[in-house]
Amino acid sequence: MTSPDPSDFAPSEPRDSRTSDHAASDPAFSAESSNRAEEIARYEPYLRMLARMQMRANYKAKLGASDIVQQTMLQAVAAIDQYRGTTEAEWRAWLRKILVRQMCHLDRDLHRDKRDIRREQSMEQRVAQSSMRLEGLLAGDVGTPSQHAMVGESLLTLADAIESLPEAQRDAISLHYLEGLKLSDVAERMDKTAGSVAGLLHRGMKQLRQNFHE
């Protein structure tokens, strides 16, 4: 796979559509942080979850979500001096942007296509929406008030908990809660009955709460 040039990731300070989790002056989210590589690695489950939901079926067999995320993290380390944000919300958006570029580069390499800016923008929007729905899941169904106050850290824990679920439960929760599909659409996507999907969601959410609060 052709690696994107780090200069691709000199972002115009991408932001979540929500307000940031931390004050804009938080030094932990400046490019000068000496432990940035370790900080990037903490986001591996979050990025893997987002990548898995966006990967096309025709190249999942050739390269897994974990492989794409490893490339994303390497590019993030290489481009860290170009990061201009100061909050965790901006940091997550910056990492998502690099992830999308990696997936689009993979798609172009496999299909020998030219760069499609509109497709990248569309994927960026879908990935951002999934991240926002993850926040909604944290706020409405899983998290506690104290965890709501620490959105960034709790999002990483929740993403890791989702990724650790059995595959069918994980996929059902991702499609329904993070991609926003109706139960009938999830059933069609997973080639299962609506009743079977409802059972997966019930068991999956029960296990997710348990995993998240451990």
Total number of helices: 11
Largest sheet: none
Tell me the helix content: 55-70%
State mean pLDDT (0 to 100 scale): 78
Number of DSSP-assigned strands = 0
User: How far from one another are the termini?
Assistant: 38 Å
Q: Which regions contain 5 or more consecutive residues with pLDDT less than 50?
A: 1-28
Radius of gyration, whole Å? 17 Å
Structure overview:
The chain has 214 residues and is an all-alpha fold. It has 11 helices and no strands. It has helices at residues 36-41, 44-54, 57-60, 65-78, 88-111, 117-142, 145-148, 151-163, 167-178, 183-190, 194-213. Helix 2 packs across helix 5 (88-111) and helix 10 packs across helix 11. It is globular and about 50 Å long. Residues 1-28 have low confidence and may be disordered.
Explain the layout of strands and helices.
Layout: H1 36-41, H2 44-54, H3 57-60, H4 65-78, H5 88-111, H6 117-142, H7 145-148, H8 151-163, H9 167-178, H10 183-190, H11 194-213
What descriptive keywords fit this protein?
single chain, 11 helices, mainly alpha, 214 residues, disordered N terminus, 66% helix, globular
Brief account:
By secondary structure, the protein is an all-alpha fold. The chain has eleven helices and no strands.
